[in-house]
């Protein structure tokens, strides 16, 4: 409920795609969006908006924030590793994470960047 209230800027009780994106990214007017933002738009339409009505209702917000299984992040990790692992060694260094920061702060796998401030052996 708190997330819905925070993101619902027009007060209609739903989160539209633009409200969702505005919470993640504030770009310059007329500037092209980074690829990770376009991926988030695809996620909104393809995964978050489960009933396809162009907005998130309270049930969809709940599903987004509390998926029914713990395995939701597994498909995201290979994508992050593929795009950020510039050395090709299968491991991410601090420098690689920082060089690809837009990718990480735009990913749910890192809780939109919040997890990057916590110690992780896997990173």
TrEMBL record:
MF GO annotations: calcium ion binding
The keyword Metal-binding is assigned to this record: yes
UniProt key word Calcium: yes
A GO term from the CC aspect: endoplasmic reticulum
Ranges of residues in domain EF-hand: 1-30
InterPro entries noted in UniProt: EF-hand-dom_pair (IPR011992), EF_Hand_1_Ca_BS (IPR018247), EF_hand_dom (IPR002048)
PROSITE patterns reported for this sequence: EF_HAND_1, EF_HAND_2
Sorted UniProt keywords: Calcium, Metal-binding
Stored Pfam families: EF-hand_5
Highest taxon in the source lineage: Eukaryota
Family: Belongs to the CREC family.
Protein name stated in the entry: Reticulocalbin-3
Organism: Cuculus canorus
